[in-house]
Amino acid sequence: MQAIPYGRQSIDQEDINAVINTLTADYLTQGPKVQEFENQFAEYVGSKYAVAVSNATAGLHIAVLALGLKPGERVITTPITFAASANCVRYAGGEVWFADIDSDSYLLSLKSTEKLIESKPKGFFKGIIPVDFAGLPVNLEAFRELANKHDLWIIEDACHAPGGSFKDSKGTKQMCGNGNFSEMSIFSFHPVKHIACGEGGMVTTNNEELYKKLLSLRSHGITKENMSENHGGWFYEMQELGFNYRLTDIQSALGITQLAKNNAGVKRRNEIAKSYKEAFEGKIKYQSLPSNSYNAHHLFVIEVEDRKGLYDYLKEHKIFAQIHYIPVHKLPYYEDIGYKGVNLINAETYYSKCISLPMYPTLTDKEQIFIIKKVLSFVNE
Fold first, then answer.
1. Of 167, 252, 294, 318, which sits 20 to 30 A from 138 (CA to CA)?
2. What are the tens digits of pLDDT across the range 233-261?
3. How far apart are CA 317 and CA 128, in angstroms?
4. Which alpha helices (DSSP H) does the chain contain, by range?
């Protein structure tokens, strides 16, 4: 059996041809493929606007800036996420506050978030960044109701979840990133994610004002909108301090072909998840699936008592599992700025047991049977 990673990209000849065609075209960056990718992605998730960026971290950064987050203002997020979900607040000089997770779904707990908000005066917090962890959508309708009650904005970190969805209280399917319950949503195109561009990200929104702000911040704060007949074609204005967070045409061309395959990829991921669940049912705990949700399954996470032992055992058999994630508040940077000793029992209990098994569309049935056999062999020893 060859080495089996926890995640990997799937690149076929169509993807390669798309990149080659772009390499021989007029534009390598700031050309037509970027907007084509943006338009197709917005249509896919059901949002009005999409802004391609160099990576999802950049997307999170300009999202909080577009909402006007100021130094010292406070934002709530989950401790079980990649550090970027919290770091974006720090980039803007804001304060991160962590609410605990639900012990079964591993998502940011609505109850814990509400308790934290209501423990402080109105206006203490500015926003919430819930994460569609492992591909499982947060019930944003419920979070929207809570946010509206306290005048908060929502940024959905959907980096794990393109193709994921949940049904709202009216039974309507709500795609991750459609903007119906959040100001903005963020997606990642890192190679282990659903859509691989090498690096890259997308911000979606239904708000035209935020859309224009994102476009400005993505490209140095520069615009040509005020050009007149008195100006030459070189004219531009820098109206605010922005960044170079642009995605290239090369990456966008790859993103377009990858996006076209995402529904099939998510379907296959759910087939893999179903096989894992059937094998582990009643024996090993795994992430729960609310009845109204469709998990895009970036990850398949289980909990075991001897997590390090299983990790090493699988590695001995060339199965390279991963851990998602070390709780953000336990990282040295966050401990050093005041989060040491924070009581987030569900997140810490989860971290002590969690391990992510291989999950990607090209994982074969034979490979998965081998993985399941080894996991059960270790657990049953």
1. 252
2. 889 999 999 999 999 999 999 999 999 99
3. 41
4. 13-23, 32-45, 56-66, 84-91, 110-118, 140-149, 208-218, 249-260, 262-280, 307-316, 332-334, 345-353, 365-379
Does residue 262 have a pLDDT over 90? yes
The CA dihedral of 245, 162, 33, 49, to the nearest 10 degrees, is -70
| pTM: predicted TM-score of the whole model, two decimal places | 0.97
pLDDT digits (tens, 9 = 90+) for 156-189: 999 999 999 999 999 999 999 999 999 999 999 9
Residue 162, φ and ψ in degrees, nearest 5 = -65, 125
Indicate whether 1 pLDDT > 80: no
Q: Which residues contact 332 (CB under 8 A, 6 or more apart)?
A: none
pLDDT at 221: 96
DSSP bridge pairs for 356: 301, 322
Query: Does the pLDDT at position 224 exceed 80?
Result: yes
d(CA 230, CA 218): 27
**Whose CA is closest to 314, among 361, 357, 284?**
357
Distance (Å, rounded) from C-alpha 381 to C-alpha 365?
A: 24
With a CB cutoff of 8 Å and minimum separation 6, the contacts of 75 are 64, 69, 89, 94, 95, 96, 97, 125, 126, 127, 128, 129
Distance CA 123, CA 288 (A): 34
What domains sit in the chain, N to C, each tagged with a CATH number? 4-261 (3.40.640.10), 263-379 (3.90.1150.10)
Q: What angle do CA 344, 156, 181 make, to 5 degrees?
A: 115
